Amino acid sequence: MANLTSPFLTSPQLHLRRRPNLCQSTKASIQSTIRASSSSSDPLLLRAARGETIPRPPAWMMRQAGRYMQSYKDLAIKHPSFRERSENVDLIVEITLQPWKAFKPDGVILFSDILTPLPAIGVPFDISDSKGPVIHDPIQSEKCIERLTPIDFDKVSFVGESLRILRNEINNEATLLGFVGAPWTIGTYIIEGGSTRTYQNIKNMCYTAPHILKALLSHLTKAISEYIIYQVKSGAQCIQIFDSWGGQLPPHVWEKWSKPYIKQMVSEVKKECPDVPLVLYINGNGGLLERMVDTGVDVIGLDWTVDMADGRRRLGSKIGIQGNVDPALLFSPLPALTEDIHRVVKAAGPRGHILNLGHGVLVGTPEEAVAHFFDVTRTLRYESLFEGFKLEPELAPVS
């Protein structure tokens, strides 16, 4: 793995002086005090993901930057290639900041794609206007596995550079999010050769060539773990893991072919970046919620088909929850959108909730509705929504 440096995450290798040996209780007390005193200046979304007491729910949207915004459509006319828009630093920064400047969400997510790191591990791909992503040499044999390489960060340097610029531009006024695809989801594209509605080849491989599938998923797990760490060391403060096609599996199959690789990935990331929250989102995760809890992530995203109150009950109060307004409601009258925001927030409870949609912003969504979503969120206060709720006093910095 390449040597990664960043002003946002200091390498432990730089501090080699012997430290005094403290008992565990003393160390825990000091670390807790330092976290409490420093986190009060952290962005709201970051604090919510850590389960801290905050005055209102933070909000952002999946697919926050993109085709519903006129400014994006104007830019896409000048730069019609999606690969160019998502791999050119100037364009990445401009597109990422478009919704930030327009709506001031609490989270700003990098404009990129879950397939962006594929060329860096030896899997070239194209994007067709009619078919979406296309991988011309899908993996079908052990020989294909040999083509895979360790991740080459020089081939995704535009991601690191963009994150560094964005972190400075946002200036801690919002949380900067990076994201990745889960191994099963990325593996689906690599084996199917692109998008699919049936997942026939990869599901068949679970039974006809499990050794090949295991080898691919293991390679992806290592590469994606390193890619997450790279994003964090470049400035990302929170990472969302998209297991977009995990919900297409029966729960017992997801338990065997997706969950272990997510758990391993989370474990590796937490060793390097223990304080960076990880969010796991699976589209169609209603049958998987309880199984997602012990993946080790800090927050679980719900899609819009799960009732928020039921989701919170099933997940419990010890893990964060994200979501889950129906994206189609942004086409409805604004009072209906306001009512549903209130419903979701009340059902999620006053701690550990990040307000979001239950899926990405839909093409054609009125920008007025997106602005209203964030305007309403900024007016909310847990003290007025939940009887007996009190903000915990902030600790003074340790002198």
Automatic annotation (TrEMBL):
The keyword Oxidoreductase does not apply. Belongs to the uroporphyrinogen decarboxylase family. It is found in: Plastid, Chloroplast. It comes from the Eukaryota. GO terms for biological process: chlorophyll biosynthetic process. Homodimer. The lineage of its organism: Eukaryota, Viridiplantae, Streptophyta, Embryophyta, Tracheophyta. This is Uroporphyrinogen decarboxylase.
